[in-house]
Amino acid sequence: MTTTAAYADAPSLSGTDLGWTDWLEITQDRVNVFADAVDDHQWIHVDPARAKDGPFGGAIAHGFLSLSLATRFWSELFDLQGVTTKVNYGLEKVRFVSPVKVGARVRMNAVIAEVSEVRGGYQFTVDQTFEVEGGSKPAVVARSLYRFYA
């Protein structure tokens, strides 16, 4: 469910747990398209037959594919109204904790850790955890920075 807030309320959002996104299945087609986009065709990602005998027992998503889902998931969880520009400003820290097998479903939790004023807007520091359905450890943990300008 999307949390919607007004721009004027941004400073009060520090500490807000936005909850979890819906589940998203990671398909081989999505992995292949990503491989083409970034020119990374390593067999553990794009050769399911060979990957069955590999270290993960099947094809896995690229770590950066999993991380890139933050864009989709972030917009599913949060909308700040009254802004003219929204910018993905970068990352403070990222760890790829466990692989995401093709066919698995993932989702993301986000907590707004901090909101600080920047020239012309606000910067949100957001702790994001990507979970694999049935997994014992997160797939990805990241601290992301987003800027919103009025």
Structural overview:
The protein is elongated and about 55 Å long. It has four helices and eight strands, in the order E-E-E-H-H-H-H-E-E-E-E-E. With 150 residues, the chain is of the alpha+beta class. It is 23% helix and 41% strand. The chain has a single domain, classed as Thiol Ester Dehydrase, Chain A (Roll). The protein starts with a strand and ends with a strand.
What's a concise summary of this model?
The protein is an alpha+beta fold and 150 residues long. The protein has 4 helices and 8 strands; from the N terminus they run βββααααβββββ. A hairpin with a 2-residue loop joins β6 (105-118) and β7 (121-132).
Order of helical and strand elements? EEEHHHHEEEEE
Inertia-based shape: elongated
User: How much helix, percentage-wise, in residues?
Assistant: 10-25%
CATH architecture annotation: Roll
Radius of gyration from the CA trace? 17 Å
Total beta strand runs:
8
**What structural class do the secondary elements suggest?**
alpha+beta
Sheet having the most strands: 6 strands, antiparallel
Question: In terms of per-residue confidence, which ranges show pLDDT below 50 for 5 or more consecutive residues?
Answer: none
Please report the number of helical segments: 4
CATH class: Alpha Beta
